[in-house]
Design goal:
The protein is an alpha+beta fold and about 280 residues long. Helix 4 runs parallel beside helix 8, helix 5 crosses helix 9 and helix 9 runs antiparallel to helix 10. It contains 10 helices and 10 strands. It has 2 domains: about 90 residues, Phosphorylase Kinase, domain 1, CATH 3.30.200; about 180 residues, Alpha-Beta Complex (Aminoglycoside 3'-phosphotransferase, Chain: A, domain 2). The relative contact order is 0.13.
Length: about 280
Amino acid sequence: MRPTIDTALVGNLLDRQLPQWSALPLKPVDPAGSDHVIHRLGDDLAVRLPCHDGAIGQARKEAEWLPRLAPHLPLAVPVPVAVGEPDLGYPWPWQVSRWLAGEVATSAALGDSVEAAVELAGFLTALQGIPPAASDDLAGPPLAHRDRETRAAIARAGDAFDTAALTALWDAALAAPGWDGPPVWFHGDFHTGNVLTTGGRPSAVIDFGSLGTGDPAPDLMMAFTLFSAAPRAAFRTALGVDDATWLRGRGWALTGGIVAYAAYAATNPRVAAQTTRQITATLTG
């Protein structure tokens, strides 16, 4: 289900529910990602409306947890200031948060930066160091949850990759020993599109819809979506990642990359290039 979301709807929702901001100018943000339609609201705020039912819990989750986590993190995160309710035919909760300036991180800009790798590892170290919450809602799915979808995507990739090598990596990641440490916070979707930069350095981390506690391996995806070999190694060293966790992280990066490749590569050259780089990096480790 994908509701129609336009600037008129956003303005009317503000008029009815958050009139203190309804006079501020609204400007669509494009591109806004695959999960939300985003409008800048004045100079300091953003309005984010989920555009499919897979993102409908994010507004309330971020409103509950990000104000608690933000003071302990070395990079900015989007602090929500209000959650709106379904209204005017729009079916889900939505959010107003502080606007974060910056450019989306790219491999062209940061891919060879050891400094950036260490900074992003420092963000994860800080996140993992915050005492985890005891909440069933924060338990992330295991890697095996992605098995059927991943194998189907590998098959659909055909001659674009060495499918035997991808299958072998996927099997190895599923067979790797599980996380045996205490649960820690993880971002859950830690890739280039969710890091902002200013002045050529990481400045903010956004989109915490997959925030959870448990195994930190999903956040190793960043190593394979952004960095070349030397910064990737520095990222791993800074985090002190053991072999089993690194292998599970390669699995998370593989499933994210190959599923996106299978879905979008034929119609979106930008996604095709990004995911090809990601998938190739998972094979090299």
